[in-house]
Amino acid sequence: MSKLKKRTVSLSLIFMILLTGCSPFVENNTIEEIAPVTFWSVRSGENDQVILSTLTPPLLKEKKRVITMQVDLLKQGSKNFNLNYYREIKSGQVRMLIISEDFAKKGITFLINTLLADPDISQRIYLVVVNGNFDEYLQNQLEQEENIDYYLYRMLKHYEENDQGEITIANLHEYKNKLYTSYSDPILPVFKIEDDDFKYDGTGIFRNDKLLYTLSYLEDQIYQIIDNNYYLKFLPLSSFSAVLGQVRSDVKIDLNSSSDILSLNVKLHARLEEYRGDKNLFNEKELTTLTNELEAYFEKQTKELIKKLQDLEADPIEIGKRIKTPFTKPPTEKEWLQKWGKMKVEVSYQLDIEPLTNMKNEKE
């Protein structure tokens, strides 16, 4: 009976501690004394150091300003900020990590591991690569819109929640999974700063943790079609004087038994939103001709995109995962890259277009 009482008392004490929130580490969270930053900006500094920037204060009604520090380590930057700013910097509300393009090309593994090791930072934090000086852009924009950091966050969140493939969206969890998974390479969105414009530039293709290449506009649209379950709200095709809308795809990827031929079959459903070409699309024969031309165009562009990825020795589509079979030893990374670079690619598209049925033929 005495043992039972001891266990009961011990469990009661543990329960009381959990209820009261007692902890050997008590942090200061008084709102007037902290600055819960919403993003970190990282770029290369001198002597292999890191230039770390953020915007303060994010909450109180005071004039916002960009604060910057050159450090050796990310956590060192947080500490140094606290020594030079009258409020304690808190990272629990960080929603974005902005990485300069030159920094991303050198490798970002240490950034990823630092974020993953911080229990205060959510793995849903957005990762973004920027071509241009983000600190200068922020400083200029603060004069016009002091909530610029919030608007950037809302833009990323909008495209993530609405499953629109207009731009690539990637968070820490997704990047980490691809980085540490065999036969897989990460991707991140790349934005470009030109004067006062902050615009989407394309999908950044990584090899391990290094940025290798940013897809062009057309390459990016093809990538969105074949590598995710999102849809494209609009797909302008200037060479055909046409705009497709609500573009959705069903992609089937197969490898032959010797894993040297990749077959990519794409069923594409879209609505014709606008057309300024010379074909009469109310004529079924001419509509079929346009459909066949578009299918051939998509097949050609997709083959060129796959060839580009093979040349880069990058596999963001995770083709390599399909070569693993039961009872056989999977190839090493080097062996897979050699096979991937020489693999023959066959692409076929089946395009289902909803014509401009709501418009009357002017000739009728």
From TrEMBL:
Entry annotated with the keyword Coiled coil: no
PROSITE patterns for the chain: PROKAR_LIPOPROTEIN
Subcellular localization, as worded in the UniProt entry: Membrane
BP GO annotations: spore germination
Topology of this chain in the membrane: Lipid-anchor
Domain Spore germination GerAC-like C-terminal residue range list: 201-353
Signal peptide bounds: 1-28
One Pfam family it belongs to: Spore_GerAC
Keywords: Germination, Lipoprotein, Membrane, Palmitate, Signal
Keyword flag Membrane: yes
Residue ranges occupied by any Spore germination protein N-terminal domain in the UniProt entry: 30-193
Principal location class: membrane
GO CC field: membrane
PANTHER family in the record: SPORE GERMINATION PROTEIN B3
NCBIfam families: spore_ger_x_C
Homology family: Belongs to the GerABKC lipoprotein family.
Full protein name: Ger(X)C family spore germination protein
Source species taxonomy: Bacteria, Bacillati, Bacillota, Bacilli, Bacillales
